[in-house]
Write a structure and sequence with these properties.
27 helices; single chain; Glutaredoxin; alpha+beta; 17 strands; 10% strand; 5-stranded mixed beta sheet; 4-stranded mixed beta sheet; disordered N terminus
Length: 736
């Protein structure tokens, strides 16, 4: 029996005695009254459960299964009602376009279990891109067993939305998938047939305990909490991150399965702080430049379009997981433009922005256990059939190709990719032209030509092998990540075309994704597809993007929407203890606080929450839940960062920039001062929040005819009668 199944059965066996631990109160509770009503009546047969309802859903993954013989339902507010009326358990299959096994497993369930599923369950197919709260819930449940999350993820729920049982599908072998699901489903059905009341009551009791366990991890003692760290402590933690750099592998100690964009951005921007210690500045610059160059030249970056794959498939970046995502591209753009400029990074930035301008956002999804020739692992003889002799010569030099392949042996222990090559960009521009003894323009033209041919062949092979090359689902979060990356690029490398693109994206967020009552849509209505309201993560990444955009433009309209969105977020996604939830915990089943203690090198939602709320606090924003939320989330973030340096790197960056509490308030006459705006976009001024006098945030001191005033933690420390000396004065202030 597979280990996952053993753990599954063990979990169910643990459920059995847990009900006996409850206090037996003589007075009948409201829950017991509700249960008696539920169990005393017979099941209904809702018409919705007789057909598949995915035809008009938002994502390609869901619509692909609209013709399935399983009566798949979308994850929606009426699911619990359907389960209650039909007196069935809910079976939720959580998948994604970016995990190719999701398609494979859903197809297997249709082939082998459609009748069992249609009769016994309310079957739900969900996409983590559409509903990230389910991804978070799956992650918590996997961690409960000491497992890392894998998709697809099968989850059985009671009609109250409480988890009954679950399993990750981490294999691509069909026989194992079928065996694991059969055992799990049979076990659930056996217990359900024995006692439906037991399933309902025990899952309710167990989920209450789960929520207590999660939040108890953050109820730290006063001694553990301590004060918010000072800047010097934060610099020491950043030094710890820089020391993780391993020059042998050009990685940060081989940790993390994704391109470490957030870590690179954090170290790069902290190293440019005027008060940054010399050793940290030197080490951070050395590490980030080397890692950037390695990522650009490795197979994790597709040189055919300049985009980065979302994960790697080996200890190095020699073998990627062949999926792409807008967020990865946006985060890598931020990392590249935040780091010191050099020839290769400039080339990568230009190619990446060009791909944005060409609207080339796709997801490539391929079964990793099937070795698919010529998708990304190229035999030399195949290349010779596709390319002209001169193009092959250019490809050999540009991608560092060898007759025996260029994938390191430790990444290919079973020699699946022996005599194959990965297309990492080794040489380009003048260096490539010099090796080939060609003019730069001709070498570049040949490289473009052969890349186009290979890209066409790649798409053909993907389609022939049942792979999927689909457009990325456009969510408001994707737009916000891209807006942030483009704003940072515009700050360091102004470009008319990319500036127009960022303005288009920013205006679309404000005009299309934002309702009149300042609520955010996650996915827009399209044809028969209904729009979906945003979740907490959407609000936070949009707010972060708008704050960056305001910093670039000083446009007061952006401030107005920032205030409205923050009000909505604090009113609807914060519980009574100040913890942020991905969805409103009072209205949504299966809701957990959005703290992720396992995020390596990535942006944690609480880290973004701290960044947004702390900046708004400095800007003069007021809300009754603002300080309560900051007080609640800072200790867990601090504890996570202390225990594991690579956790919450976004929080480390935000804390370093906000801990001193500087705010520069400018007079309205400076609103159109472009040169000053551009100056303050420099990472050296990340720790100076800037705002122009406005009618949206009115709780700021009067300028009294000054051109600007500098506040530190709410107190005026400097006045400026003109703006000419402000940048140099602020650098001196920050360097103290």
């Amino acid at each position: 029996m597979k280990q996952t199944t053993l753990r599954f059965l063990l979990l169910l066996s643990i459920f059995l005695p847990s009900c006996r631990d409850r206090d037996a109160e003589s007075k009948e509770s409201e829950a017991e009254k509700s249960d008696n009503i539920f169990f005393s009546r017979g099941p209904e047969s809702p018409s919705k459960l007789t057909s598949n309802r995915l035809a008009n859903e938002s994502s390609n993954f869901l619509r692909t299964h609209a013709d399935s013989a399983i009566n798949w339902q979308p994850w929606s507010s009426d699911i619990l009602d359907l389960a209650e009326r039909s007196q069935r358990l809910i079976l939720v299959l959580v998948g994604s376009t970016y995990y190719s096994q999701s398609y494979q497993f859903a197809d297997l369930l249709e082939t082998q279990f459609k009748d069992q599923i249609n009769v016994n369950y309310v079957p739900v197919l969900a996409d983590i891109e559409v509903d990230p709260a389910l991804s978070l819930a799956a992650n918590y449940l996997a961690l409960e067993r000491g497992e890392s999350i894998a998709f697809p993820f099968a989850l059985w729920l009671s009609h109250e939305g409480n988890p009954v049982a679950w399993m990750s599908v981490s294999t691509t072998k069909e026989a194992e998938m079928l065996s694991e699901f059969r055992r799990a489903s049979n076990t659930v059905q056996a217990i359900l047939n024995d006692s439906q009341r037991y399933i309902v009551e025990n899952s309710r009791f167990d989920n209450k305990g789960r929520l207590k366990r999660i939040t108890s991890l953050w109820n730290l003692t006063e001694q553990e909490e301590g004060p918010q760290p000072k800047q010097g402590e934060l610099f020491l933690r950043a030094q710890g991150l820089a020391d993780l750099y391993d020059p042998t592998t050009s990685t940060f100690d081989n940790t993390g399965g994704i391109p470490p964009a957030n870590l690179i951005t954090t170290l790069s921007r902290i190293s440019q702080h005027p008060a940054c210690p010399p050793r940290l500045r030197k080490n951070a610059k050395r590490a980030t430049q080397a890692v950037n160059q390695h990522l650009i030249q490795s197979a994790i970056r597709d040189p055919l379009d300049g985009q980065f794959y979302i994960r790697r498939g080996s200890n190095s970046f020699a073998i990627p997981i062949l999926s792409k995502h807008v967020r990865t591209q946006a985060e890598m753009l931020s990392a590249l433009v935040s780091s010191a400029s050099n020839t290769i990074s400039d080339y990568a930035i230009e190619q990446l922005i060009t791909s944005f301008l060409n609207n080339r956002f796709e997801s490539l999804s391929i079964n990793r256990d099937e070795v698919i020739d010529e998708v990304y692992f190229w035999k030399k003889e195949t290349l010779s059939e596709l390319l002209s002799p001169q193009e092959l010569e250019v490809a050999t030099a540009a991608f560092g190709l060898h007759n025996l392949g260029n994938i390191p042996g430790n990444d290919d222990p079973q020699r699946n990719f022996f005599r194959r090559n990965t297309l990492g960009l080794v040489k380009f521009g003048p260096q490539l032209a010099a090796e080939l003894n060609l003019p730069s323009s001709e070498a570049e033209k040949l490289l473009t030509s052969l890349s186009t041919k290979l890209a066409i062949h790649q798409d053909t092979v993907v389609e022939a092998n049942n792979g999927r090359n689909e457009e990325t689902l456009v969510t408001v979060s994707n737009q916000a990540y891209l807006l942030t990356g483009l704003v940072r690029a515009q700050a360091t490398k102004p470009n008319t075309a990319s500036n127009q693109l960022l303005e288009n994206i920013g205006n679309q967020i404000l005009n299309d994704y934002l309702t009149e009552d300042q609520k955010l849509l996650r996915i827009l209505q399209d044809g028969k597809r209904e729009s979906l309201f945003a979740q907490a993560q959407d609000y936070l990444v949009v707010l972060e993007a708008l704050l960056e955009w305001y910093r670039l433009t000083w446009n007061e309209e952006i401030l107005f929407h920032i205030k409205g969105l923050t009000n909505t977020f604090l009113d609807h996604f914060i519980d009574e203890n100040g913890y942020p939830f991905e969805v409103n915990p009072a209205q949504y089943p299966l809701s957990f606080p959005i703290y992720n203690s396992t995020m390596i090198f990535g942006a944690s939602t609480w880290g973004v929450c701290y960044h947004v709320l702390q900046r708004l606090s400095l800007l003069g924003y007021e809300h009754e839940r603002l300080q309560t939320t900051l007080t609640a989330i800072i200790p867990p973030l601090e504890t996570g960062l202390k225990k594991t340096p690579v956790l919450h790197t976004d929080y480390l960056l935000a804390a370093t920039n906000n801990v001193e509490g500087y705010l520069l308030v400018l007079s309205k006459s400076q609103a159109n001062n472009r040169s000053l705006r551009q100056e303050f976009m420099n990472p050296a001024f990340d720790s100076i929040q800037t705002i122009v006098e406005n009618e949206t945030f009115t709780n700021l001191p009067s300028l009294q005819n000054s051109a600007a005033i500098l506040l530190q933690k709410g107190k005026i420390v400097s006045r400026f009668q003109n703006t000419s000396g402000i940048p140099s004065a602020l650098r001196q202030e920050l360097a103290r």
